[in-house]
From TrEMBL:
Residues 286-569 form the Polysaccharide biosynthesis protein CapD-like domain. Keywords: Membrane, Transmembrane, Transmembrane helix. Residues 625-634 have a biased composition (Polar residues). This is Polysaccharide biosynthesis protein CapD-like domain-containing protein. Pfam families: Polysacc_synt_2 (PF02719). It comes from the Bacteria. Residues 615-624 have a biased composition (Basic and acidic residues). PANTHER family: POLYSACCHARIDE BIOSYNTHESIS PROTEIN EPSC-RELATED, UDP-N-ACETYLGLUCOSAMINE 4,6-DEHYDRATASE. The lineage of its organism: Bacteria, Pseudomonadati, Bacteroidota. The chain crosses the membrane at residues 12-31, 46-67, 79-100.
Length: 634
């Protein structure tokens, strides 16, 4: 479908059109006078008439721009444009004939004007259709791809006409699949219409290369069924923009994109309470930690839409921070921000940032998050995640930050690894400060994010590009997924909720089987799983579990006013106990003893049970009873 051929320059098309008009004048006289036009009178008369006719035609062709369309893709719209130009031109010719009718030399009979008008239209439109047919026959022997369109009549017709205009005979539109149609038989511009329930049969019986989905409203189950059929039949699926944009006439085939894994896993758009978000962001100074990361940077993009006074982007990654700087300025046109390079574990740098900018809202997205790496480096998990969160939390209380929103993870629920347990410790510390007056502390908890740095989707994509194999830890492993914008929108929305101390859980939909994800990505890339690209199982990594959970065993949820956000009902921790134990844990960093650090983590978070890890031996040792840990629900 990437066929591109040279086309005649516009001036050549204009010149040919004028030649057709000249011939039409001669043919009109021949028809009017029984082909007796070569006597001296008419031989002298016709050149003057030609001058008047061609002048009028040139003026209207330029006015209606009839020469600008590609001749080989002539459509009904082009024919209408030509009829408009010739009609206006004939009116001008008639008006000219009235001015010169007193002169026998320049007199133009009305019958000639009418005949010339008819012959000109037949010549201009007919020549284009003949050229289009010849071009179609020629191209058909070179390159042609079978395509089907799925959508309602209006949107499918717009896509069909765009294909005709942009790709012409390079494609063969076999049919239109229209939801709601029950029986086959109808046609649109010669293209047969099929009911949706026959999609599998149509794809099976025809060599269809691509199916174009128009952006119609279809439910998630229906869309997934369509995509599964196409993937099974090895048909590439393309997604067209919203039909409203097609009707505006500013869409070309280049805007039609191939469906990717984000489209397969994404859900209907999230409806935000914009007024609530504006209330706590508009005109405020906002600090975002981890602002150069995949989540932090998207939070910044979302915040920029609500006209904050200033956004402080805090991160230790220099190059990614520079990249988001350029994006905000050049792509989004947002300039009310400042970059701060530093580590959140540096109390001096963090205090300086709070003193300089006095943030009113903090979004805490900075964290080490890779499970195997933190399992090998507990020191860094505590030093960065826990110590950094403690510094940020304490400063937020001291400087009376209005809202503090922390980004957590589903791996903090019944943690089986050091990373998840470190994030649970962060949740506990933040929650313990909920009663500290001015600052409203809010924690958000969600699963894997599509496209984030180091995500399984990125790894699979690289492996597929390299020809495989695609590596999966276990055939039964499942994960929850969200898109980055979806997760960050809910983070902003959660910031409007509660009185402080709440942990909000996002509706992640159903858990996806990772092997199914890998197979879909392979098929979307045009390959056959385990034939073109192998799938290899490599075993669970240290600290990894088959199923992630969004709530601990002893927890449940309460609804909120937003259908995508639930409130986790969790255990309360006595603030003094939390402060004491976190200080003890951070004191162990001086010893740099991994087992001592992890043992203290398990003491504070008793549900932390290591899996596939060297730290499993600690789970068999007796633990100190935790009298300060309340069993009551929050």
């Amino acid at each position: 479908m990437k066929l591109r051929m040279k086309h005649a320059p516009r001036l050549v098309v204009l010149a040919i059109d004028l030649m057709v008009c000249a011939v039409a004048v001669v043919v009109a006289y021949a028809l009017r006078f029984d082909f007796q036009i070569l006597d001296a009178y008419y031989g002298h008369h016709i050149p003057w008439v030609l001058a008047i006719v061609l002048s009028a035609r040139l003026l209207t062709f330029l006015l209606f721009r009839t020469y600008r369309g590609l001749v080989r893709y002539t459509s009904s719209a082009d024919a209408i444009r030509i009829l408009g130009a010739t009609t206006v031109g004939s009116i001008l010719i008639y008006m000219a004939s009235l001015l010169v009718r007193s002169s026998e030399v320049l007199e133009i009979p009305r019958s000639i004007i009418l005949l010339e008008y008819i012959v000109t239209n037949f010549g201009l439109i007919g020549s284009r259709m003949i050229f289009k047919a010849i071009h179609a026959y020629t191209v058909r022997t070179v390159s042609q791809e079978a395509v089907m369109i799925l959508g309602n009549e209006q949107s499918a017709l717009q896509v069909k006409r765009t294909l005709d205009r942009d790709l012409g005979a390079g494609v063969s539109i076999l049919g239109i699949v229209e939801p709601g149609v029950q029986h086959r038989g109808a046609k649109i511009e010669g293209i047969p219409i099929f009911p949706l329930h026959r999609l599998d049969h149509v794809l099976r019986d025809n060599q269809v290369g691509k199916l174009i989905l128009t952006n119609d409203r279809m439910n998630e189950a229906e869309r997934d069924r369509i995509l599964d059929i196409c993937l099974r039949r090895k048909v590439k699926v393309l997604s067209a923009p919203n039909v409203a944009k097609w009707l505006q006439g500013d869409i070309t085939f280049d805007r039609v994109k191939q469906i990717d894994i984000n489209d397969l896993l994404s859900r209907p758009p999230i409806v935000l309470n914009s007024e609530g978000i504006q209330e706590y962001l508009t005109g405020k100074t906002v600090l975002v930690t981890g602002a150069a990361g995949s989540i932090g940077s998207e939070i910044v993009r979302q915040i920029s839409k609500f006209r904050p006074k200033l956004v402080v982007l805090f991160d230790q990654a220099e190059t990614p921070l520079y990249d988001i700087d350029l994006e905000l300025r050049e792509a989004l046109g947002f300039v009310d921000f400042h970059l701060v390079i530093g580590s959140m574990t540096d109390p001096v740098r963090m205090r300086e940032t709070f003193e300089d900018y006095r943030p009113e809202v903090v979004f805490h997205a900075a964290a080490y998050k890779h499970v195997p790496m933190m399992e090998d480096n507990p020191y860094e998990a505590i030093s960065n995640n826990v110590a950094g969160t403690k510094i940020l939390t304490d400063l937020s209380v001291e400087f009376k930050v209005r809202r503090f929103v922390m980004v957590s993870t589903d791996k903090a629920v019944n943690p089986t690894n050091v990373m998840g347990a470190s994030k649970r410790l962060c949740e506990i510390y933040v929650q313990a400060h909920a009663a500290n007056g001015a600052t409203r502390f809010i924690t958000t908890r969600f699963g894997n994010v599509l496209g984030s740095n180091g995500s399984v989707v990125q790894r699979f994509r690289r492996q597929i590009e390299n020809g495989g194999p695609v590596t999966i830890t276990h055939p039964e492993i499942r994960r929850y997924f969200m898109t980055i914008p979806e997760a960050c929108q809910l983070v902003l929305q959660a910031g409007t909720m509660g009185e402080g101390g709440e942990i909000y859980v996002f509706d992640m939909g159903k858990a996806e089987k990772i092997v199914d994800l890998a197979e879909k990505m392979i098929m979307l890339s045009g390959y056959v799983p385990n034939q073109d690209i192998r799938i290899v199982y490599v075993g669970l990594r240290p600290g990894e579990k088959l199923y992630e959970e969004l709530l601990a065993n002893e927890e449940n949820t309460l609804p909120t006013h937003h259908p995508k956000i639930l409130r986790a009902k969790v255990r309360d921790y006595e603030p003094g106990y939390v402060a004491e134990k976190i200080d003890e844990l951070l004191g162990l960093l001086n010893e740099a003893d991994d087992f001592a650090i992890v043992a203290k983590m398990k003491e504070i978070v008793p549900e932390f049970q290591s899996r596939n890890s060297r730290f499993e031996v600690l789970d068999h040792e007796p633990k100190e009873q935790n009298p300060s840990q309340s069993a009551k629900k929050g």
